[in-house]
Each structure stands twice: as structure tokens, then as C-alpha cells.
Amino acid sequence: MNALFNDPLWFTTRASGTVAFGLLTVTVVLGVAGVARYAPARMGRFEVAALHRNISLLALAVLGVHIGTALADSFVPIGWTAVVVPFLSPYRTTWVGLGTLAFDLLLAVYLTSAVRLRIGQRRWKAVHLCSYGAWAVALFHAAGTGSDTRLGLQITLYSVCVAVVLAAILWRLYTVGPGHLAARVGLATASVATVAGFYGFLAAGPLAPNWSHRAQQAQSTEPMGERR
Amino acid sequence: MKRTARRLVIDRIACTGHGLCAELFPEQLALDDWGYPIQSPGPIAGGDTRHAQRAVAACPALAMRLEAARG
Ligand code: SF4
Which Pfam families match (chain B) (predicted)? Predict the structure, then answer.
């Protein structure tokens, strides 16, 4: 409890990162539900679409808090440029860099959605499909950077998020229609492989001993202080 | 505030039959058996413009727009 009050920024960064990832997960699932024309009995289809949009905006706001507090926290050096240019943070360069990459992809998705009428449906959609990639990159960023990855609850949360997104994608690929069988099987395989890769990474990385040093060491000989 | 009468135009080629528009603007839109909109003709009554705008904004295929009723 003391640590919480001594390090409010650090704790806010961790908490907002977790919340943002949860919100992005909900956004992805609602987006898949919308495009698959899921029609719940007690809800309008337009409500699914409105929730998808509004929760995505909420996620953006929480991401702002996540990034802002990470920068403001003086303990870890990250630097302003690392907000948009990946792999510049001296602190856990690779793993913070993945967060930057996810943020860049998301920014592209948000901005193109804001000007959707002007750029047209096809280009908007091409960029919007990056959301899946952004979500997956954010997942690896969360597990690789997060100080909470070893917590049972945190792993449970990631697993739930992974399960619902994978289920939504597979369901979508299954119901989308008879055509493009090879492409659909390929995408399904890639999705499952990504999930398998994630658990492999968890086992070899964050859940294996001494991760906080290994996450840092690849880039600098001087290990950062370990924080819990 | 001056209101110009407006008319809802559906691009039948772009429309993918999502049917969201009919949920938001039932005053002028119904759905056929395949989920494509059937539009009752005529300009949009003043107070309905807001609903029509929401329907236009919600269309996933960007298949609808509002035009001035004359011209
Ligand atoms: S919301 Fe758009 S795509 Fe869906 S039925 Fe209406 S006009 Fe067509």
C-alpha cells in the first residue's frame, strides 16, 4: 500500500495500461460482432456499432493517461520521441517499442476513422484492419514490459482477452462464407500461431527467472533498477 | 435558424444491407426480407433531420447521404 502512494505515477501507468488493453479487447470483439452482423435480441445493431466507437474512444483516453504517466514518471527514462518513434526508449527498448508501434497503428486507425467520409470506404477499411495487428502487438508489449505479468490475476486477464479475441476471429472466419477457403484457413492458422507464440514467449520470457534484467540487458549494459 | 429541406439518398451499389439505418431512421426506412432498405419517398420533415443524420453516420458502408431536397 505504501508503494502505491510513493509511486502514484508508476502505478497509474500500470493500471491504465491494463485497463486500456481490456478496452481495446472489447473494442475488437465489438468490431468483429458488428462486421459479422451479430444481432443481439435486446440490443440494436446500431448500438453495437456505437459501443464499438465509444469504447474505442475511451481506450484512446486511457491510453493517453498510460503514455502521459509513463513519460512523467522520472524513474524510468523513456523520452518524448519514444511516444511515436518505436524502439527509442532507453528503458526496455524492445518492449516499450512494441507499445509505440501499437500506438502508431492505433493512431492510423483512429485518424482514418475520423476522416472516413473523405478517404472512402476501401482505404479506410485497409487501415482499419491494422487494428488486429495493433491489438496483438499491444499484447506482447503488455506482457514484455509490464511489471505485473507474473501475477496470476494478470495472466488470467490476458488469457481471457486472448481467448475472446481468438474466438471472435475464428467465428468470423468460419461464418464469413464459403469463398476464399485458403485465405481463411491461413488467417485462422496465423491467429492460432500468434496465440501459441504468445504463450511460448510468456514461458520463455516474463515467467522465466530474471526477466526484468533480460528485458533490459539486450540494449544496455547497465541494468535498470528493478521495480515490483 | 433556417432549415433547408433535405432528402435521403441511398447508394444502392455501395449498400451492403447492414440495416443499421432502418434502426435509426424508421420514419423513412424499412428493411426488405434481405435486410436492404426500402425508403418511403419525400423530403425529411424538419424534426427528423437529426435522426436521418445519425442513420447516415452509422451506415458501415457509407452508402447514404443527405442532399438538399431541391436540385
Ligand atoms: S446502413 Fe447502409 S449499408 Fe446498411 S442497409 Fe442501410 S444503407 Fe445499406
Answer: Fer4_15
CA–centroid distance, residue A224 to ligand 1 (Å):
54
* Tens of pLDDT, residues A180-190: 889 999 999 99
Answer whether residue B1 is part of any domain: no
Chain B nearest-CA residue for A52: B58
Domain hosting B22: range is 6-66
Residue A27 has pLDDT above 50, yes or no: yes
pTM: 0.86
Whether B56 lines ligand 1, by a CB cut-off of 6 Å, is no
8 Å CB contact between A138 and A161: no
Helix pair A93-114, A121-128: axis angle to 10 deg = 160
B62 located within any domain: yes
Closest Cα of chain A to B52: distance in Å? 13
- Give the separation between CA A115 and CA A120, rounded to whole angstroms: 9
The answer to whether residues B69 and B6 touch, using CB atoms and an 8 Å cutoff, is: yes
